[in-house]
Design brief:
single chain, 11 helices, 735 residues, mainly beta, 13% helix
């Protein structure tokens, strides 16, 4: 089959047109979606406005291969241009003082990459590697960390115990460099790692975290043998220090005790806003820290009876207005995630948004008069739109105006430098994630910057999700998204698949998922729909989007009612006259893989086939992992405190009940759910003589969320063939 080149004109909502030269891959014989086409869908992220307010830099990823691109933020007439010399990510990047180039950390040095396509050039090259390069507020200087060749050794001044994990670590130095003349000045030297550099607004002080390090734990369980070592990494937080930026001085700690301050933002040249969540996840505190005295003053505190359940994606932390007069933050004190603003000088917080919806990702305008955010709507929890709250001089007089409308999910607004426009991400039932811009005023027409969907894909074939509800184990209605193939013969019965999303605190959307990690699954479900499957995706209790009570429904009950919420989607499917209740499949990733294992052991005859992608096999193993122990304890305590909860959260203990085929997929470099979970699962299945029912595919070097092309291709074809062999009409019914 030949590939052809086609010039494609895409009509966008704004009335503009994007012209793209596209290489069209071969299509399937039926003209439907192919797995290869789905792998070609790209995902944009990390948009950055240029100082001129016209251009937007961003990262575009295809199957784990990323590049930095530049787009015109005012028009969609031209496709974004790749800046090949900029590398693959924008972490640590900043704009040059003239706004005509991106400053990119590269190979331990700093490079200047012109956005007009000119050749990149190094700002400096040194024998040592510089890291954590951060520009000063006025863009004339940078601070960075340089590791020296001299190592801290046991004995003598500053010695550490021989068993200290940091013993022998190289010393690091904090430097400041003038970008115009190249002059360097040493700020401080530490015999421990330094990270998290932050400049004060006046450029006079630097805040840095020193001493953060990791401890490597090794596991060689008997069921795996002693030849293969499995590792767990424990992160030990460091201390937060402040030091003058102009000359070498003695760093001063900003808090008693360890742990730094977590996310931090400058209110003014002397004060930092910091957020901290207690180890038991029951208390979230916002404090104002005086960098001169190191003293902290509590400004706001949320105390939860169960646990702080708002996910990090919400952007809930305290944010000072650019003029330092106000502090915005999110709280779920009334049961829903809402926007609040309080005076920086002290005083009560005013609730800006109210209702049965969740307001997320607030962002101050440059003039400190407005806050942009995204929010879903009562009864439409998978739809999100952009809004702007205008303070009108004080939060008590704030008014809210919508910016976007229609079907889809619009998130993460970022203001242009002049405060006139916003760049954001949009998805809908026919469009995967793309970047758009819009004027920050009601009635404005958005402009599409990217076209991430390959032109060869026929969007008319996509199936739109339908919101449905069914009763959970205690009668509470469980929201779910139902997908029914187009032109389905409803006089016949068809196979169906239950998809269980991961993370717990996540959700399905009215269309493509906003996160790349789950967007690839949404894409694959569109492929499965064209193969004749009905698909349902439940938002079991614990999911975001539906308020605090639904999120906290997992408290002391992980693997209980939440898991039944998920697999009871099958009982709903059995009520549909066009679904064959004897040909149901179930699958999930991560937390969804955990629920999949519970489903096939609690209800061994309900599903004819199941796929577990990197699922938790036993929460006792999760608790033992330092990376996840605190998260687990906040929800279900310790195994000693609540053995009955850990017993129900251990599908590993019940694999003797397995009766139907199970496919397990896992990457060896997974840190979210360590690969050892699946190793132990397979070992126990074999001990229970279930080897004839289980298939296991290992992906060397792959992480939790499958990203690389060869892994995606193999995984999706493998899942497709597995479900077809067990759920299609030709499949035997002997299982």
């Amino acid at each position: 089959m030949k590939r052809v080149l086609m010039i494609t004109a895409l009509l966008v909502a704004s009335g503009g047109v994007i012209f793209m030269l596209t290489s069209i891959p071969p299509t399937s014989a039926s003209g439907g979606l192919t797995i290869e086409q789905l792998i070609d869908i790209r995902h944009p992220s990390t948009p950055m406005w240029a100082p001129d307010g016209r251009h937007v830099a961003f990262v575009w990823d295809r199957a784990g291969v990323s590049g930095v691109y530049i787009a015109d933020g005012l028009a969609a007439a031209a496709a974004p241009r790749e800046l090949k010399d900029a590398g693959s990510q924008l972490a640590g990047a900043f704009w040059s003082a003239d706004g005509r180039a991106l400053m990119i950390p590269k190979n331990g040095d700093l490079w200047r990459v012109p956005i007009d396509g000119g050749a990149a050039s190094p700002v400096w090259t040194t024998p040592q590697a510089e890291s954590n390069i951060v520009a000063s507020p006025d863009g004339t200087r940078v601070a960075y960390v340089r590791e020296t060749s001299e190592s801290a050794s046991p004995g003598g001044s500053g010695s550490r115990p021989l068993n200290d994990p940091r013993a022998g670590a190289a010393r690091t130095e904090l430097w400041v460099r003038n970008l115009s003349n190249g002059h360097e000045a040493l700020v401080t030297r530490q015999d421990k790692a330094m990270t998290g550099i932050s400049w004060s607004p006046d450029g006079q002080s630097l805040v840095v975290t020193a001493g953060t390090h990791t401890i490597r734990h090794e596991q060689t369980p008997a069921y795996s043998g002693s030849k293969i070592i499995y590792t767990i990494t424990e992160t030990v937080p460091g201390d937060t220090l402040v030091v003058p930026a102009a000359a070498a001085g003695v760093p001063r700690p900003l808090s008693a005790g360890r742990g730094g301050f977590g996310p931090r933002r400058w209110l003014d040249a002397r004060h930092l806003l910091v957020d901290r969540t207690s180890p038991d996840f029951k208390r979230r505190t916002t404090s104002l820290v005086d960098v001169a005295s190191g003293e902290a003053k509590v400004l706001h505190e949320d105390v939860e009876e169960k646990f702080w359940s708002m996910t990090g994606d919400a952007g809930a932390g305290a944010q000072p207005s650019p003029d330092g007069k106000w502090i915005a933050f999110l709280s779920d004190r009334d049961g829903w995630d809402h926007l609040y603003v309080m005076p920086a000088a002290g005083g009560d917080a005013i609730q800006i948004t109210k209702g049965r919806f969740e307001a997320w990702r607030p962002a101050w305008s440059p003039d400190s008069a407005r806050i942009a955010f995204d929010a879903n709507e009562p009864g439409r929890y998978g739809t999100r739109h952009l809004y702007v709250a205008t303070l009108n001089g004080t939060p008590s007089r704030a008014t809210i105006a919508p910016l976007t409308s229609g079907r889809g999910t619009n998130i993460a607004p970022i203001w242009s430098p002049d405060g006139t426009r916003l760049v954001y991400q949009h998805t809908d039932p026919s469009s995967s994630a793309d970047l758009w811009t819009i004027d920050a005023k009601p009635g404005a027409r958005p402009i599409r910057l990217t076209a991430s969907m390959p032109a060869a894909i026929d969007r008319s074939q996509f199936v739109e999700p339908e919101m449905v509800h069914y009763p959970g184990p205690d009668g509470q209605p469980v929201p779910a998204w139902l997908f029914v193939p187009k032109n389905l013969d409803r006089s016949r019965k068809h196979p169906a698949i239950v998809w269980i999303h991961g993370d717990g605190v996540n959700q399905n959307y009215d269309g493509w998922h906003v996160q790349r990690n789950y967007a690839v699954y949404y894409s694959f479900h569109q492929y499965l729909l064209q193969q004749g499957y009905v698909v349902i995706a439940p938002d079991y209790r614990g999911s975001i989007g539906y308020g605090r009570v639904w999120r906290e429904g997992v408290y002391m009950d992980v693997g209980g009612k939440d898991a039944r919420d998920a697999w009871m989607a099958a009982t709903y499917l059995q009520t549909l006259p066009y679904v064959d209740g004897d040909r149901l499949g179930v699958w999930g990733l991560s937390y969804g893989g955990f629920f999949t294992l519970i489903a096939v052991t609690d209800q061994p005859k309900l599903f004819r086939a199941a796929v577990d992608v990197a699922g938790v096999a036993d929460y006792a193993m999760y608790y033992e992992d330092p990376y996840h122990g605190g998260w687990t304890t906040s929800r279900i305590g310790t195994p000693e405190q609540h053995p009955e909860v850990y017993a129900q959260a251990s599908p590993l203990s019940h694999v003797d009940r397995l009766e139907r085929p199970l496919l397990v997929l896992h990457g060896t470099s997974d840190v979210n759910v360590p690969y050892l979970h699946s190793v132990r699962l397979i070992d126990e299945l074999l001990k229970q003589r279930k080897g004839d029912l289980v298939s296991f595919m290992t992906y060397p070097g792959e992480f939790h969320y499958f990203t690389r092309e060869h892994v995606l291709r193999d995984a999706w074809h493998r899942v497709d063939e597995f479900f077809a062999s067990h759920l299609k009409p030709s499949a035997t019914t002997s299982h």
